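Slide 14.
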Amino acid sequence: IQRLRERQVELKTNIADLSTSLLDNHPRIRALRSQLADLDRQIRNEAEKIMKGLMTQAQTAQARENQLVADVNTLKAASARAGDQQVELDALQREATAQRQLLESYLTRYREASSRKDSNYLPVDARVFSRAVAPSEPY
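Slide 15: predicted structure.
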């Protein structure tokens, strides 16, 4: 477009120069005006092409923006779900820990009860100082 504008200025200058010495209906001025009209048409066509290209770019950018907004919204929703799932996971882990501790206490009690059935049972907090001797006579 820049070269076309330069050519347009050149033609207008030529027309102005010739208009001082020739009439408007002179064949040279008519030819220059015809060239100027063609040049104006070319400039309009080029400007329209540029406008169409810019419109296409704008539409593409708008579509891309819409897609990015949709992606962000999807990610926000996924993040919110992940947060909810993390809260649920934490609750389940706390419950599992509590259940594990309860099971361990039951197992400890079971082992203690099982060991009491054994004849050599000795409570954990008891110690043997000396072995008892069976009396040889009654009191």
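Speaker note: The mean pLDDT is 88.
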